[in-house]
Amino acid sequence: MANNAYLVNSDVLSNSIAMLEEKGEKFEILATGSNRIPVPWFFGFDQDDLKPAEYNYI
Hints:
- The protein is α+β, with helices and mostly antiparallel strands and 58 residues long.
- It has one helix at 17-22, and strands spanning 4-10, 27-34.
- It contains 1 helix and 2 strands; from the N terminus they run βαβ.
């Protein structure tokens, strides 16, 4: 199973494309990556734009 990452443009802060679609929110997928997050994506943000996240893997 591939680990796909998506760079999404949306007015709603969410990490779930399914949730955006379910709520009928407008969004656009700007880029995708498979099994990694491309480092150049981080240059498109200021420090205040990046939100801390914690993921628990089983």
